[in-house]
Amino acid sequence: MLENLFASRVKPDEKSRLVGLFPETHYLDNISFGGGAPEEKLFPVEELKEAYQVAVKRQGAHAFQYHDIRGPEYLRQFLVERAKTLVGIPEVTDDEIMLTAGGQQGIELVAKLLLNKGDAMAVEAPTYVGALAAFDTFEPTYFNVSMEDDGADLTQFELLLKAHPEIKLFYTVPDFHNPTGITMSVAKRKRLVELANKYDFIILEDTPYRDLRYVGKSLPSVKSFDTEGRVIFLSSFSKILTPAFRLGWLVADPVVVQALTKLKLTEDLEVPYLPSATIEYYLQNNDLDEHIQSLRALYQTKMEAMMAAIDRYLPGIKVSHPEGGFFLWLELDQGIDTTKLLWENAVPEQHLVYVPSESFYAHRDRKNGMRINFTGPTYEQIDDGVKRLSKMLVENSRQ
Ligand code: PMP
């Protein structure tokens, strides 16, 4: 048994939260509401191709060499400016910025920095499954904070903090939350920082969807209220440019950046040079915000199409009403098990994929919800997929 030699963190008997999450079905008419993929036809392919060629041409053979762990200079400066204007941190400096291999590595590094086995941390319930998978590796003790329409329930959280002052990390997705689509109110953002100061914990503010707002005005980041360096702001190029280059970035206190950089060195030695240089040249020669504007326009119409299909085929169902992002969250009657339905009906009968709610709960104990993605599927698939969802629920209620 090779598994006997594995470290306890691997837990061979426990299914990973991520493996098998997006079932590959080979039916031709398969519709996926499962992943969180950007719309492919809006990738700026020609511009990125040209930027890659410039990156190679300018550096010659050196482009293929090892490079600085901190990543290209211009790119870091671009992020310093973006943090000032879009994140609202007027004083941010270069030593507070760090590049990571996607937002995912940022989450994993923060977990590695803070969590010894058994350490207490709090998460929104539900929350991003990939973050839970990263935290799982460090075997924390999880505490759940329920979600309300304007973000995490901070009254409940404060009671939790009083009972468990050992909580040292709170992970939140305040903008267009994955999986529910909910956005945290400004009042709660402020209050959250006050709680962190009072009860001595760190906030990981994960915001890959922040720029993808379709309705209303952008809200100040949680980090913008930070007074003691307790907030780590994490973002990514995955949803606004391309996930293929695996490039994320964070803003944190210099002490935190130094410690995270030390941990990153042992993982991959450096920020991959060619992807980051390609993005650097792309940013020098193109207007990222103009590109984001075109994404917003398309995604807004897709979100509206999905809401309309839900009104048509699933009237009265409990659904979230996001102002941006990639996802809607459906809550079904208690007793309905969406994992069971996925494997027994959605995939084999309807050829439809969604992500069942249990994946998004730290204790995998809530089964009557599902996350559906509206950015990946076509308009026809959105309409047809919601129709299939309705059919699945009708068939289930007859049993
Ligand atoms: N955080 C959240 C909330 C996400 O939804 C995702 C991707 N689905 C990530 C982090 C990781 O993204 P990436 O590593 O591609 O930047």
UniProtKB/TrEMBL annotation:
InterPro entries: Aminotransferase_I/II_large, Class-I_PLP-dep_aminotransf, PyrdxlP-dep_Trfase, PyrdxlP-dep_Trfase_major, PyrdxlP-dep_Trfase_small. CDD domains: AAT_like (cd00609). It comes from the Bacteria. Its cofactor is pyridoxal 5'-phosphate. Belongs to the class-I pyridoxal-phosphate-dependent aminotransferase family. GO terms for molecular function: pyridoxal phosphate binding; transaminase activity. Homodimer. One of its GO terms (biological process) is alpha-amino acid metabolic process. Pfam families: Aminotran_1_2 (PF00155). Keywords: Aminotransferase, Pyridoxal phosphate, Transferase. Residues 42-389 form the Aminotransferase class I/classII large domain. This is Aminotransferase.
